[in-house]
């Protein structure tokens, strides 16, 4: 029974998911991210290739056109090469900036808006000799099932991607064999088309493998954040409050409301009874409300208390079973009586007022 209770069989609650995200624990696929980043990099190279090629060609043309051997200072190689480094930086910088932006967008698309300080915080315990010794022992210990799965996935990815690249080259084997004797530009175009086909095949393979890995990572993540029944109960207590405490609070609130209701009985005009099971106190003040108000009501023991307080404070008690039941069932405390009970309540109040006048006279 204890083992069954400890099993993680319950789906993670929204609060648990939010806590995991705050810790930086989310379902992410490095394979899918890598495939998308690689595709983005190739696409950027294709877009910027003309600009980069033209700039490099212009730099080489200027260099060889204005090259003077007598101006070369071998003692200041760094100063000689610095202009070329600067121009290369200008060529490469847009590519890297756009690739970084694309990488951030891809990761954001994969895991959503997540920022966790715990993931970037340095844990100095990992630098202790004991921890380093334990990590070294793990390297030579039998691999865990998860590690074996990751190792098998890595081998499978290499084989599949390499096979896709080889298939693209193998399909153009005849073209490769025919390169001998061709003009350099024609040969270069054929080699470039073969490389493009190979890259497309490899990117598609990586994309498919990344999609499969994403599904697997989602499955593993959902499995890892599952909760035990006790954890769900404890979280519910933390979120909604302990049922015992809530019951106690409700009891105190009901007791306070009852005391407040009982304190209004002496100020009432009349108490309508069943005669023993129901008791409803009524007050009519035209300056407060256009119709009589139920100031207190109760059944059985509470009805007995209302009648007892009414007797102690000389509040008239009138027996009228249908009116008492109707008022109790339809009118809340501090609520006005409905229009269909106006006549019945008016007769009761009229009777009470006449009795008071007779007693005063």
Please estimate the helix content. Answer: 55-70%
Question: What would you call the shape?
Answer: elongated
Q: Strand order within the widest sheet?
A: 3-2-1-4
Work out the strand percent: 5-15%
Rounded to an integer, what's the Rg over CA atoms? 43 Å
Question: What structural class results from the helix and strand content?
Answer: mainly alpha
Give a quick account of the main beta sheet: strands, pairing sense, barrel closure. 4 strands, mixed
Order of SSEs: HHHHHHHHHHHEEEHEHH
Give the N-terminus to C-terminus distance in angstroms: 80 Å
Low-confidence stretches: 1-5
How many helices? 14
The averaged pLDDT comes out at: 79
| Beta strands, count | 4
Number of domains: 3
